[in-house]
Specification:
Elements lengths: L9 H15 L8 E7 L2 E2 L9 E7 L12 E2 L6 H12 L3 E8 L1 E3 L6 E3 L1 H13 L4 E4 L11 H16 L3 E4 L11 E4 L16 E4 L3 E3 L8 E3 L2 H26 L11 H12 L9 H5 L7 H4 L1 H17 L3
Parallel strand pairs: 1-5, 1-8, 2-4, 3-5, 8-9, 10-11
Antiparallel strand pairs: 6-7, 12-13
Helix pairs in contact: 2-5, 3-4, 5-9
Length: 320
Amino acid sequence: MADSNLRRNRWIDDMKPFLQIVCTIPDKEAGFVKIAVIDNGVDASLESLDGKIKAGTSFCPIPDTSYHNPYYMTSETLSHGSLVAALICHICPKTRLYMARLIETPFSLEGGMLITAELAAQAVEWARRKKVDVICMSWTIERNLGQNDNGMNALKKAIGDAHTANFVMLCSASDEGSGSKIIGAATESGDRCSRVHKDDVDFVFTGENVPLKTGNDSPAKLHDGSLVVTAIAAGSAGLLLYLNKLTAKGNGQNSSWIDLREHDMMMKAFTTMSRVTNNNCPRFSHYFNNKFTELAFKMNPDKFYDTLRRIMDKIKTERP
């Protein structure tokens, strides 16, 4: 589908000018945010991921051997993991990816995935050892009549350990409405999609008709579903972490500076940003859209830092 024929997505459109500014900021200012994507691998040849993948590992064994499939691959179709990775980098241009590939079992016509709990637990532990900032898990695991209790318990422990260590962890809400997940899909107005059960999610992100180009010569295509909103949420968390690092740089990180690299602090920031919609949908454009000119950082870094610091202080300190 050609770009000119795509439906507009307000989240992407509204944030595009600000994200273009972020892309112009030199890497030396605040480095990068480390985001782990635990999924079914990634097509490392995609132009949109060029230079973005820092490390990877595989928990996807080759049957009847002691070897594992590599975490990277090439494919004529956009894999689940590749789409998640590309969306994260689109939302947070200053990302370095840590890819963990899991064995998968397709479970729906829409391309959903079931993941082995034991291997998912190992992947979470790997991400924790890599000291990433955000862990993104856009898939579903269901208890199977007691047959996978050990694996589920191991995964629960791995997630609990990561939470205790203050990792920001974002998981999908199943489109079928089952499972204890935290991120669900919203319409462009910020309203929860009808297929998402209210009690299953903590936050919703706009996840309908999201356009994405994976290469300079490739046409943009529309994507939606739980994997899209989880990727957008992970990229959004990464963007906030990066911007907060910038304020530390510009502010000299004095005693009043608040670190967002804690799960509870990030959730508080999301809650504050959701007050605009009053429906648990963080509205990033309300805080960042039209606040900066195109050459804001290049022309006047001090003014850029001052404006950004005021915005981030408001997000971090306002009572939800």
